[in-house]
């Protein structure tokens, strides 16, 4: 029986775990916080897929490629879209309660850059939470071991292959977990930016560990910034589905500025809308723009109950007046390079979900393709991992942990790490955010390298997270400097767009 270790408990990780277990593998899931504290549970937007008879795989595939600025891998896109129908049926069989009309038919929604209303939602704007609920219940029912509050330290290697992982338990002790295959599904790295929709756990741990293990990464310059995030109080995403239902963006003069940016206005690809908002904010002294959903009026609380609660908690009434929004870091299109079965360049090491670079997103992710990618490629990775056989890791092998017990847990070091983490996030927002220049990226690279030299080795979960953030930030900056032209979500304000791709990226 193959032993599979899954690191992460979002849609990709839990799908991989369930699939591997169904193939006869002995599966263990470890997750840094609680089992449901993943980005999946925060996903308001729906899941895209070909489930209606008047839709087609060709149409969804074309939309995905167009939004990607033609940089997506056509084979990966085909695998994603062709597998979507079965993946959604599987979720329904697991008990995911997608929204239905009075006749019991699945309701469909439209989001940016889709040519057809193929988006399924659950609970209006609680799709991710509903999917996470069903997956966690299925994992529990299957008897899969889940270890919460367990932090990834490093991938364990033997003979150049992944043979398990070094982990830190809730008490701070480091131990080795043997496995025939390791699936990294730790999500993205939104916490590298000062303003993000991502949960606190999104610190790029899987990508950073894969890099240290020698795995190939790609596409790290492509960071998607969600256009509409509440600009009052803690960052809270206002789903693209709100604009799909007819909400519009206004500047201080009350003008729909997105009409000047793209023919599809508010429903243009996210990179276009986010930059249009940033430019409008710059013209009005940095103040946020307004999202006007008044035309939907009293329908808003029922259609978007999660957003409605967040809006009202801030003392706003979006059924009567526009609400302030601004962009925030949302999704990393790059990650650990995998084939269509989730295999990385390191034998025995797999990746899925936002941690992976499958090639399906290219320079810009199509709305609601992320949950679909998690389930389609999570299943592929889990199936392949269940068949994996590597040299077993034994406790007799030499194990030198990459964390230290001496000195670096002191209050001074903790304060230093808090300060560096805060400064890093501001630095990345300023120099490697929506608009980038060589001069700014060079400043960021120098500062990140300096921190990595100066900081002590990590001794606790806080130190491990900061090491991950610095590692991923350095890779984002490196990739952004290497791509000197603007394309998709990567915008170099000191360079012209790549001519052949300019039209496709809009």
Automatic annotation (TrEMBL):
Q: Which InterPro entries match?
A: FAD-dep_OxRdtase_2_FAD-bd, FAD/NAD-bd_sf, Fum_R/Succ_DH_flav-like_C_sf, Fum_Rdtase/Succ_DH_flav-like_C, NadB, Succ_DH/fumarate_Rdtase_cat_sf
Keywords, A to Z?
Answer: FAD, Flavoprotein, Oxidoreductase, Pyridine nucleotide biosynthesis
Task: State a GO cellular component annotated for this protein.
Answer: cytoplasm
Q: Which GO terms describe its molecular function?
A: L-aspartate oxidase activity; steroid dehydrogenase activity, acting on the CH-CH group of donors
The UniProt record lists the EC number as 1.4.3.16
**Catalytic reaction list:** L-aspartate + O2 = iminosuccinate + H2O2
Q: Does the keyword Flavoprotein apply?
A: yes
Could you tell me the Gene Ontology terms of the biological process aspect for this record? 'de novo' NAD+ biosynthetic process from L-aspartate
Domain FAD-dependent oxidoreductase 2 FAD-binding, first and last residues per copy: 4-371
State if Ribosomal protein is listed as a keyword: no
Biochemical pathway: Cofactor biosynthesis; NAD(+) biosynthesis; iminoaspartate from L-aspartate (oxidase route): step 1/1
Query: Where mainly found?
Result: cytoplasm
Localization = Cytoplasm
Matches recorded under NCBIfam families? nadB
Write out the function statement from the record.
Catalyzes the oxidation of L-aspartate to iminoaspartate, the first step in the de novo biosynthesis of NAD(+).
- This chain belongs to the protein called L-aspartate oxidase
Highest classification ranks of the organism: Bacteria, Bacillati, Actinomycetota, Actinomycetes, Micrococcales
């Amino acid at each position: 029986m193959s032993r599979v270790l899954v690191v992460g408990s979002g849609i990709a990780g839990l799908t991989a775990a369930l699939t591997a277990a169904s193939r006869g593998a002995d599966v263990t899931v470890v997750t840094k916080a609680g089992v449901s504290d993943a980005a999946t549970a925060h996903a308001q937007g729906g899941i895209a897929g070909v489930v209606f008879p008047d839709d087609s795989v060709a149409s969804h595939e074309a939309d995905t490629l167009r939004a990607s600025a033609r940089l997506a891998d056509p084979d990966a896109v085909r695998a994603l879209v062709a597998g979507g129908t079965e993946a959604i049926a599987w979720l329904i069989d697991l008990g995911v309660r997608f929204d239905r009309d009075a006749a019991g038919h699945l309701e469909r929604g439209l989001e940016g850059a889709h040519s057809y209303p193929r988006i399924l939602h659950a609970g209006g704007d609680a799709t991710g939470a509903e999917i996470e609920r069903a997956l966690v219940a299925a994992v529990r029912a299957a008897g899969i071991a889940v270890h919460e509050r367990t932090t990834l330290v490093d991938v364990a290697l033997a003979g150049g292959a992944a043979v398990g992982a070094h982990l830190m338990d809730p008490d701070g002790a480091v131990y080795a977990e043997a496995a025939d295959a390791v699936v990294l599904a730790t999500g993205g790295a939104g916490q590298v930016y000062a303003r993000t929709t991502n949960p606190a756990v999104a610190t790029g741990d899987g990508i950073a560990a894969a890099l240290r293990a020698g795995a190939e990464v790609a596409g790290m310059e492509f960071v998607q910034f969600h256009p509409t995030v509440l600009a009052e109080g803690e960052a809270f995403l206002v789903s693209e589905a709100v604009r799909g239902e007819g909400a519009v963006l206004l500047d201080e003069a009350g003008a729909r500025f997105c009409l000047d940016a793209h023919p599809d206005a508010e429903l243009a690809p996210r990179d276009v809308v986010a930059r249009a908002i940033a430019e409008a904010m710059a013209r009005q002294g940095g103040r946020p723009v307004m999202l006007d959903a008044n035309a939907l009026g009293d329908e808003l609380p029922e259609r978007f109950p999660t957003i409605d609660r967040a809006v009202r908690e801030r003392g706003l009434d979006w059924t009567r007046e526009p609400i302030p929004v601004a962009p925030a870091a949302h999704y990393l299109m790059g990650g650990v390079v995998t084939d269509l079965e989730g295999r990385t360049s390191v034998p025995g090491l797999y990746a899925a979900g936002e941690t992976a670079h499958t090639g399906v997103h290219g320079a810009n992710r199509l709305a609601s393709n992320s949950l679909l990618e998690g389930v389609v490629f999570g299943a592929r990775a889990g199936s392949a991992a269940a068949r994996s056989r590597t040299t077993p890791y034994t406790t007799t092998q030499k194990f030198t942990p990459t964390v230290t017990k001496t000195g670096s847990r002191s209050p001074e070091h903790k304060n230093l790490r808090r300060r560096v983490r805060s400064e890093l996030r501001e630095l990345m927002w300023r120099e490697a955010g929506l608009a980038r220049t060589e001069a700014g990226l060079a400043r960021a690279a120098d500062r990140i390298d300096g921190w990595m030299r100066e900081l002590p080795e990590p001794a606790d979960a806080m130190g491990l997270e900061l090491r991950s953030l610095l590692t991923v930030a350095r890779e984002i900056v490196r990739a952004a400097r290497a791509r000197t032209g603007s394309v998709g979500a990567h915008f170099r304000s000191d360079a012209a767009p790549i001519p052949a791709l300019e039209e496709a990226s809009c």
